[in-house]
């Protein structure tokens, strides 16, 4: 077995003290590091040109769609959500609806419709069955039956 260096010997001897000092230093600087990272993130997203470049890279990486394709869909949908028709703003969050298996882009949705679509899928019901059950629920809420008792 090779001989230990002076630094290795010192570390083995004072390991607990060294680790405690490192942890204390991390704890003391935790807020400072978080503030630095938040400032870096604000600078990264503050520049509109960089912001658009970053979004385009993410679209290409996640969906294989370039900015031209997403822009075309956005204007093809007349700047509206493909499901509910709510007005969308280009600079705000655009939810690119896509098939998770094939990564094929289907359209652009507002946040509410994107979440609703995810919840419907998670329920395990077909969209038609989900809509039927929701309509039945709204027509005959269980609380109405409880009030009669």
Structural account:
This protein is 67% helix and 6% strand. A hairpin with a 6-residue loop joins strand 1 (95-98) and strand 2 (105-109). The model has no long low-confidence stretch (mean pLDDT 87). The chain is extended. The protein has a two-stranded antiparallel ribbon. The chain contains 6 helices and 2 strands; from the N terminus they run αααββααα.
Name the helicity range.
55-70%
* Derived structural class: mainly alpha
Order of helices and strands: HHHEEHHH
Mean pLDDT: 87
Q: What's the alpha carbon Rg, rounded to whole Å?
A: 27 Å
Give the strand line-up of the largest sheet: 1-2
How many H/I helices? 6
Number-wise, the strands total 2
Distance N terminus to C terminus? Answer: 83 Å
Largest sheet descriptor: 2 strands, antiparallel
> What would you call the shape?
extended
Indicate the proportion of strand residues: 5-15%
């Amino acid at each position: 077995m090779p001989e230990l260096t002076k630094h290795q010997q010192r570390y083995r001897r004072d390991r607990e003290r060294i680790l405690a000092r490192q942890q204390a230093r991390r704890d003391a600087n935790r807020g400072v590091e978080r503030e630095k990272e938040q400032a870096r993130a604000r600078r990264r997203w503050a520049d509109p040109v960089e912001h658009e470049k970053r979004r385009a890279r993410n679209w290409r990486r996640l969906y294989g769609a370039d900015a031209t394709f997403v822009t075309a869909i956005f204007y093809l949908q007349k700047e509206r959500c493909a499901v509910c028709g709510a007005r969308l703003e280009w600079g705000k969050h655009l939810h690119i609806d896509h098939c998770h298996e094939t990564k094929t882009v289907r359209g652009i949705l507002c946040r509410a419709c994107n979440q609703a679509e995810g919840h419907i899928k998670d329920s395990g019901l077909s969209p038609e069955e989900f809509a039927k059950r929701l309509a039945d629920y709204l027509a005959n809420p269980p609380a109405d039956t409880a009030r009669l008792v």
